[in-house]
Write a structure and sequence with these properties.
Radius of gyration: 27 Å
Order of helices and strands: HHHEEEEEEEEEEEEH
Distance between the termini: 98 Å
Number of strands: 12
Structural class: alpha/beta
Helix content: 25-40%
Largest sheet: 12 strands, parallel
Number of helices: 4
Shape: globular
């Protein structure tokens, strides 16, 4: 008889437990969408599909463009990513530029330019490194420049060696 009595007692505690998880289940979905948004806005700003920006964009964080931009983009030390829906008619200056959409304009990257298979770039490229995947469209000139940091380090390393010799 203890067993039936214990089994009747056990359903009672689990009844409050499902009620408690039900409340947190509703709270986390509210917290989950809020959590990625601040992380994305802190690390990377986004211009969505429905937005069009005309003018100059400058700043100190990375940028993801899935809409339309006309003008100039200057984000030194950061990454500019043009998404699949992105259409950019601007000159871009950044540390790294990733092209999944379309860019019409010259791009200058202190590190690298990456044109993915879905991407199209019409304009001149100046960068330390460039990657063009199969299927990507590119029309323009390429100027490969040595990275400024490595060039400065090489110059300073070469100077003491020549003085000691």
């Amino acid at each position: 008889m203890w067993k039936p009595s214990q089994s009747s007692n056990s359903p009672v505690p689990p009844t409050p437990e499902p009620v408690r998880p039900a409340a947190p289940v509703f709270e986390p979905p509210v917290a989950r969408p809020a959590a990625p948004a601040p992380a994305a806005s802190g690390d990377q700003a986004t211009i969505g599909k429905g937005l069009m920006v005309k003018g100059e964009i400058t700043g100190s964080e990375s940028l993801f463009i899935d809409g339309k931009v006309e003008g100039a983009i200057n984000l030194p030390g950061n990454r500019v990513t043009v998404g699949r829906n992105g259409q950019v008619a601007a000159n871009i200056s950044a540390r790294e530029i990733v092209v999944l959409g379309k860019i019409r304009g010259n791009v200058v990257a202190t590190d690298r330019v990456d044109i993915r298979s879905e991407g199209a770039l019409t304009g001149d490229v100046s960068a330390a490194r460039i990657s063009i995947e199969d299927g990507a469209f590119f029309k323009g000139g390429i100027d490969i420049r040595k990275p400024e940091v490595k060039a400065a380090a090489a110059a300073s390393a070469a100077a003491p060696t020549s003085e000691s010799a």
